[in-house]
Each structure stands twice: as C-alpha cells, then as structure tokens.
C-alpha cells in the first residue's frame, strides 16, 4: 500500500472548534509530555469518546508547542502494518528517499542524528495493532521508535492499555470517561445553536442521558436538532436508536457515523465473542461483579475470561467498579444488530429467578441486589421462561416489595406497576389489588397524601369485591396513618380501630401491631406521652412476637422521639441509637434518617452545634436520596434552628423558608405553622418587629385550624410571641401572651413542666413594667 501526502492530509482532522468538559484531562495531557525527560502518553477509550480531539487540543497548547515546535499527526486508521507506519512517518517528516537505503534505514538514521524534540501523535493505533498477523512487527516498531531520546509519543487507541512494552502514562489513569451532564449540555447547545431555556435543558439532558453523554453521539444528534424539534428528536431516538447518529450527506466514517465507528471494533471479534457481546447488550446494568457473576449467569460461555478480554481490548465493553458495562450507543447498536440468542436469554432468566427466590427467603437483600435493578426489571417484564406470566408477576411483586422495604420507592413503584399488569392479565385479582395497595402505601410514606388516598380507596374497593379482610385492613391502616399525618385524628383513630379489629379477627398480629404503633404516634402528636408510650410498648411486644425487626425499630424510634420531646435526652439517645442500628441492619434508610434527625435535634438542644449540624446534614442526605420531602424539610427546619441558636440569623431564615416551601408542596399545615413561628423568632432577633408579628399571627392562625390543636407548638408560639411584645415595650400584650401560654401548658398534663418557665417570664416582665413606669 503506497501513501501520498494527500492521503495523510485528508485523513487528519482539524482541532475541534467545540470542546467542553475536558479541562482537567487537557491539563494532565499537557503536563505529561512537558515534564523533564522522556514521557509517552496513551489516550485510551471506546470509539466516539473524544480521544482524537483530546490529542489535537493537547498538542496545540502553548506549553506543548514551546517544547515541540512541530508535532506530527499520523492517522493510523489508514495504515495496516509496520511498513505502512514507517511510510507514514517518513511522509509526515518530509524525508526524501535515498538510493540504496530502505525506508526503515532512512527513518531510523534520521531519528538517530536528530537532536530536536519530536512529538508524534499516532491516532487510532488499534488499526495496525489488530491487523491480521501484524502485531509482532508493529510492537517491535513502536518500541524502537519510543527508544529514540528525541521522540515523544502520544498514542490514541481503543483498549485498556497502551501498545508494546513501553512505560505509557495513561491519561485519566484509565480510559477516557464520558462527559459530565453539564459539559454534554453545553456541547449540545453549541452544536445545535438552540436557545438556552429551562424546558430545552431538561429535554437535552434526557437525550444526553440516553446517549450516556458520549461526545460523538452528542455532536451528531445535536446537528439533527438544528432541523428537528427536541420532541421529535426524542421520538426518533426511541424509534431508530443509533440509526439516526450519522452526519447528513457525509461518507460513513468513524467521525461521522456512530454505527460505523462501533462496527470497526466488532469486526475484530471471533463468533463466540460476538455471541457474548449480544448477551451483554441485553443487560442495562451490564454484569456487576463480573469475575464471579458471569460464570454463574452464563455458565456455558467457553473461556469467558478470554472472551471478556477481547471485548475490553476493543473497548466495546468497559470495566467500571468491577462491573462489565456498555455505553448506551454501543448497547443499542449491538442489541439491534447482534441480538441475544434464545439460549443465553434463557440462562439469564434462570439466573435472575434464582436471585429473586433467594431474596424472597431473606428479610434483607444481598449487598449487590441494587446493582442488578435494571437487569431484573427487563428480565421479568420481558420474561419468556418457565412459569410464564405468573412467574414473572410473582418475581416482580417480590422485588417491588423488597425495594419498598429498603426505601427505594421509585423502583418499588416501577416493579409493582408491572406486576399488577401481569396479574390482571392472568385474572389474579387478589395479587393485583395487593400491588395497588403497596403502590398507595409508597405514596403515603413519600407524603403524597392526595394520590395515596385515591390509590388506597381503589385498592380497598378491589379487596371488598373479592371479600379479602386482610386486604381491607391493610388499606384502612394506611389510610389511618395518612389521616394522622394530616392531623385528622378522629378519622385516623376510626380507621385504625376498624383495621385493628379486622387484623385481630384473622390472627394477623403484625397488622394489629401496625395499628397500635400508628395510634401511639397519634397520642404523641397530641402530647399525650403516657398513653403514647404505653401503646408503643404494647406494639413492640407484638412485633417482637412475630419477629418483625422493622416494626420493632419503628417503635423504638417513636419512643425515642417521645423521650426527646420530654427532655429525657439520655434515654432518647440510647433508644434512638438502638433503633438506628436496627434500621441499618435491615437496610431501612428512612428509619435511619429519622433517628439521625432526632439525634441531631438532641445535640442542638444540648448546644452541641457541630455534632448537630453534622448529624442533621447526614439525615438530610439520606432523606433526599430516597425522595422523602417531609424528612428533607424536617432536617432543613432543624438546621435552621441550629444556626439560629448560633446567631447566624440570615442563613437560619433561609433554611426555614426553604423548609416552609417544601411543607407547602405536601400540604403539611402543622409544620408550615412551625416554620412561621420560627420565622417570627428570627425576625424578632433581627429587630424586624412587624415581620415577626405577622409571622406569629400567621402561625397561630395555622395552629388554630388544625382539627386537634397541637398544644405543644401552640404554647411555644404564644410564649415566643410574648418576647416580641417585650422587645417592643408593649407590656400589656406581653402579660397576655405569657398567661395564655402558661394556661395552655397547665391545662395539658404532659406539658405542665413548661408552666414554671412561663411563670418566670411573667415575673420578669412585671419587674420590667415597674421600672418602665
């Protein structure tokens, strides 16, 4: 094969005009060849990840050009072997042929006598490296070139390691990563020239997520966005996948067509490796812990480790956190072109049925359970194996229930929705209703009460039609718990009592315990701490009798909260720590966060502010990770109180307002009142008396609207309102508010310990009034 200068010229791309999100890699790539001495750089990764662009940008940086006045770019994808590489280097160096000398001698003689630093960029080196039987000669060639002291190499190639026995510095420590979402969005905007809007950004992020933020795929689809709306582009991607990822009017090539780029790597595989690749494309999560899992999942793959190494060497699969993964464009193309065989699909189904049966026999899923979520859903939503739709529905239901109990509510809802459809298809009305009840309960724990009530009412109606007392009782308990959180204590008590009677009539001790625990929480919220403690202890005994660790942990956390409210901090810490440890042992994230929030508030009340902020921040992260809005707002409110105690009033007020906004979205009236009362306190401390006065008035108005007045917070609101009037010098109003607070606390036995506090405030006020007169 003879090369002309024009061949190399036209195969050499210009530096990219649009280049985002790679600053750290560029800085690292500049630093390595510019170090003192000789250092060779390898840029590794799958096709379309931006290896060539990185090499061109790095070589055009001022620091690199200062050391290497000229760099020489060699497009190795048009070269086949050692001879092609030598010929290419001679041409980019501009060396003349000499009579009686081979190309090898001309090149090596020049490099031997040259004393100026030379930078060679060997782009797409996988082509000669993998060409037929050329590897040995190519290996010897690049090792010889690297030995010349004047030469520095930058090589780009698909694979896991640089070629030959050369001390390569790997850019980014391993393979080049995909773009961050922010960089991908910016690249899309620059290519498509779309106007930046919140609506556009959401759609663009969704598209980029579908493409796994692969730079080539983003550039090609963004070019389409110049002519096609984002809505139609999303629809076309869902319909055509990688078929749309090509540059209009351009000859298919590795920089203009994603499928062409992928196929270059596929051509290097033997048939068995292609079969394995097809099986891997079926798995959205890839193969977690593949060194152990792959042989269990696909026991009939011959020499699986060798086949995997082939795939890794071609960068068709990546190893990330011990999992075999495929980037989305690669996975979509392979799934369409080299789809999974029925044999491998059956083996995967058998594997995941086994995992699900193991999970159903254990109260806590295995550590790697969540790593398989997408694989599990796809396997059972498209299940074709033994047991048919009934087996698939049962597995989906089992998994949905497990996700529910480890507080992964979005996954739980997804699995349960699919399970319900399959149960309906086989006319299993009971299990279909059961899935619906669990879906309603998911909305309940996420504080989405209106949706929860509607779903639970539908589930209850379904259970009534098939006369399932257990199902009816379960729905009543969930509804009772919702009414409790909405401060509708009469409705809550009625629903819980009815549910408890039904549970007891069918011998369901766990269900009866749930009702007792919810009733205990009602007493707690009414400040009836003695009744609450007694009821919760009774529920705990029932939970322990049926071996329910979750129920036991919930009782302990509620008891710890009561002790906190009573100022019994030692008992509270001990009980909450026990509950937290139990929640953690069973994977209960929501319960763990609740205990952390209570412990954080105890630290606050003990003036241990650093511990309070650390613990509350930890609780907030957990709540946010499971989508619990109420819990997140609770943490924000208490963090605000902590900052207030430290006199950081502006930051405190901001957090209180943020919490109020969340409570408003979930219509949590009581906690909206708490935030208003706390805003009044902060405004008072800031000297903004009119704002403080309005906040207290609004808070009292909110508390008075509750079906069952919250005496604890109403009393504190009146007490703090009194201090506002004291600061304003309005002593008649001061006396009135302190007296109202005192009388409210005195009328409620559990709150009488706050009466002396009000009496002292009244006495101090009288002294001040006398002085003022």
Automatic annotation (TrEMBL):
GO MF annotations in UniProt: ADP binding
Amino-acid biosynthesis keyword on record: no
Matching Pfam families: TPR_12
InterPro entries: P-loop_NTPase, TPR-like_helical_dom_sf, TPR_rpt
Keywords associated with the record: TPR repeat
Signal sequence region: none
TPR repeats: 553-586
SMART domains: TPR
PROSITE patterns reported for this sequence: TPR
Record protein name field: TPR-like protein
Organism this protein belongs to: Tetrapyrgos nigripes
